[in-house]
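[Discussion] Sanity-checking designs against the backbone

I'm trying to build intuition for which residues belong where. Below is a structure token string of 126 positions. I'd appreciate it if someone posts a full sequence so I can compare it with mine line by line.
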């Protein structure tokens, strides 16, 4: 890929499509003029809930100040309303993200999470 680092590979997305296509909600933002991919978020759906979001942008120098909010919150909310989802769990990116989420109506709730942490020292700390 040369210029960009992609954390999620094409093989990863193919695996999702093969194994759990009914659980994937992929929100993409494209340029109106040429359809160029600007960014997006990967969410998962189950039991009336949208769980998200893994956010990414195709370019780091975009002058689109609300692209993140559109991909991670506003489009997910619109999708939830249009398709009858009961709630959205937007995830937490750390830092000040929880304050941004609360200003947009997302109240914190306990959420079960399972992670494998390969680094033993970090695993003990967590």
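Best answer:
Here's mine. Compare freely.
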């Amino acid at each position: 890929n040369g210029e960009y680092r992609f954390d999620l590979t094409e093989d990863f997305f193919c695996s999702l499509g093969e194994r759990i296509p009914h659980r994937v909600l992929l929100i993409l933002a494209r340029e109106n003029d040429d359809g160029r991919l600007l960014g997006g978020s990967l969410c998962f759906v189950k039991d009336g809930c949208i769980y998200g979001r893994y956010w990414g942008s195709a370019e780091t120098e975009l002058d689109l100040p609300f692209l993140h909010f559109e991909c991670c919150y506003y489009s997910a909310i619109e999708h939830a309303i249009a398709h009858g989802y009961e709630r959205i769990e937007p995830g937490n990116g750390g830092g000040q993200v929880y304050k941004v989420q609360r200003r947009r109506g997302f109240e914190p709730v306990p959420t079960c999470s399972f992670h494998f942490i390969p680094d033993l020292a970090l695993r003990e700390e967590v």
